[in-house]
Amino acid sequence: MLDETTLTLGTAGIVSAVTYVSIVLVIPRVAPEFRKKGLSGRDLLKESTEQIPESQGTTAASLYILILALFAPLPFLSHFYPLSPSPSSGPSDLQFPHHSLAVYLATLLSLLVATFLGFLDDVFDIRWRYKVPIPIIASVPLLLTYAAEGGITDVVLPKVLGLRNFLGVEKTGGLLKLGPIYYLYMSMLSTFCTNSINILAGINGVEVSQALIISVSLSLNSLLFLSPSSPASSPQQVSRHLFSLYFSLPLAALCLALLKFNAYPSRVFIGDSFCYFVGMAFSVVGILGHFSKTVVLFFIPQAFNFVYSCPQIFGIVECPRHRVPKYNLKTKKLEPSLVYFSKPPTLLQTSTLRLLSTLGMVKLHLDEQSGRITSFSNLTILNLLLVWFGSMTEKRLNETMMLVQIAGSVVAFTIRYGLSWLFYDASTRR
User: Fold this and answer.
1) Cβ neighbours around 266 below 10 Å, total
2) Which residues have a Cβ under 8 Å from the Cβ of 50 and sit 6 or more positions away?
């Protein structure tokens, strides 16, 4: 007789296979229709002027949501047909998890809203100041359901800097009840996941590649909790991670299928709709599995890219609309793109760029006579890799970025499973 874990994993495997095959079959058929409707654009890093279909993240996300809706009964199959029935048991004896079903349906609604709003961004090119709250809007159905069912709103604080003593939670093992603030934290998580992927973009396949590695890492993290030998495992935690796996495994299949078309040389563009959808999916997996802090760990390269980009994002130095690397027609390789000063830089701008240059994190061009800065390389991790390792092809740059993402996941696993004892008690590590 199959147990619930095996049944759920098998079901998630089937859904993942269906998701992969569906995307591989559907995108070649619908992408030309997007181009006919004007949803297409030229690749800025290619010599070709061919118009490439855009917003195919909408197609992949729609198929993902449709398949999960179609297979919605499968995660609850064991409650319809008990795996270990007793002679006296009947349908009335089954304790159906109505809360889990409500969260499942609310999750699909949140993903649907995120995809829809992302598609609107692809069509109308929404300005950044209006993009930021979009993930918050999309997370409302999930957060409302979570609150209505009395979801957990406490966090375990690490044993650092006397934080537990300062907040008076030493006796509770660092357990701090946040109440409504926890929902604000979860909505901010969806905003972080979405926009951190959105700003680390610009070359073929880079958004899908990082999403693939993160989704595989999240799936592996959940699988580690399913091992009977895991000291931190409990029936409740196993149930949460099984539920998260039902979303993360098909998500990995989606990214793998989409990469067939978006990898260099890209045959389709995914658009902002993919970033909205996948960011919401990552936050959903973290919320359902109650390991949101671990989710953030897998975003180490994205967090670094955001911090590194802050001087441009917050207007200390100029931030152009596009910060993608520059394509050199002669060498056929990518080089760091530059921002040119139209007037002498201010003291704050000069100090900031000089500091980054001292750390080897920016390429500066100086006026030969005055010595003032005339231009600098855009502050993104993709341009930084080109500053460090020199010009390279677009395919090679994406492969390098994938290695950085994998290294980030290795660091995340090391912190989570190798060093967590430094910050948390054994009974509260989760």
Assistant:
1) 21
2) 42, 43
Q: Determine the Cα–Cα distance for residues 185 and 279; give it in Å rounded to an integer.
A: 15
Q: How many CB atoms lie within 10 A of CB 364?
A: 15
Q: What is the separation of C-alpha 270 from the centre of its chain, rounded to a whole number of angstroms?
A: 14
- Does pTM top 0.85 for this prediction? yes
Long-range contacts of 347-352 (CB under 8 A, 24+ apart): 348/316, 349/316, 349/317, 349/373, 352/311, 352/316, 352/317
* pLDDT tens, position by position, 93-103: 457 777 778 88
Question: Which amino acid makes up residue 347?
Answer: L
List the structure tokens of 144: 């409302």
β-strand partners of 176:
155
Distances (CA, A) of 418 to 159, 236, 335: 16, 23, 38
CA 428 to chain centre: 26
Tokens (6 digits) for 178: 């946040």
Q: Which two tokens stand for residue 175?
A: 């357990």
Q: Which residues contact 251 (CB under 8 A, 6 or more apart)?
A: 64, 211, 215, 278, 281, 285
Longest dimension (CA), the chain: 93
pLDDT, tens digit, 9 for 90 and up, residues 155-170: 777 777 677 887 777 7
Rg of the chain, C-alpha, whole Å? 23
Angstrom distance (rounded) from CA 235 to CA 247: 19
* Number of Cβ atoms within 10 Å of the Cβ of 122: 22
Instruction: Give the Cα separation of 145 and 140 in Å (integer).
Output: 9
For residues 204 and 206, give the distance between their C-alpha atoms in angstroms, rounded to a whole number.
6
Q: Are strands 373-377 and 175-177 parallel, antiparallel or unpaired?
A: unpaired
Q: What are phi and psi of 232, to 5 degrees?
A: -90, 0
CB 269 within 8 A of CB 53: yes
**Residues comprising the chain, all counted:** 430
Task: Find tokens 């759920």 and name the residue.
Answer: 8
